[in-house]
Design a protein that fits this description.
By secondary structure, this protein is mainly beta. It contains no helices and eleven strands. Strand 7 and strand 8 form a beta hairpin.
């Protein structure tokens, strides 16, 4: 089992920035990739950023150039730096880990509004 706990969400104005953090614990030796997904009301959850154990990153087109995913293996942490936020980025953001199974955290709300 892998446990994921997100933090750092909140309310921000359009054009602003937020940094999300995810703390991983449990059977983390089995994880080969981590990421962040988001789910807006009435929509399906989608992955927006991923990072492999070798730190290869990938982004959804909607966030490319604005979001940056990073990881600190020594601390078992994954981060999502979000810049130039737009109202359409409003969603619950979930930390994700892929190993034998796909794991999700409990989510943290990000609201972009003036």
């Amino acid at each position: 089992q892998v446990q994921l706990v997100e933090s750092g969400g909140g309310l921000v104005q359009p054009g602003g920035s937020l940094r999300l953090s995810c703390a991983a614990s449990g059977s983390i030796f089995s994880i080969y990739a981590m990421g962040w997904g988001r789910q807006a009301p009435g929509e399906q959850r989608v992955l927006v950023a991923t990072i492999t154990s070798g730190s290869v990153t990938d982004y959804a087109d909607s966030v490319k150039g604005r979001f940056t995913i990073s990881r600190d293996n020594a601390k078992n942490m994954v981060y999502l730096e979000m810049n130039n936020l737009k109202p359409e980025d409003t969603a619950v953001y979930y930390c994700n880990a892929d190993g034998v199974y796909r794991y999700w955290g409990q989510g943290t709300q990000v609201t972009v509004s003036s």
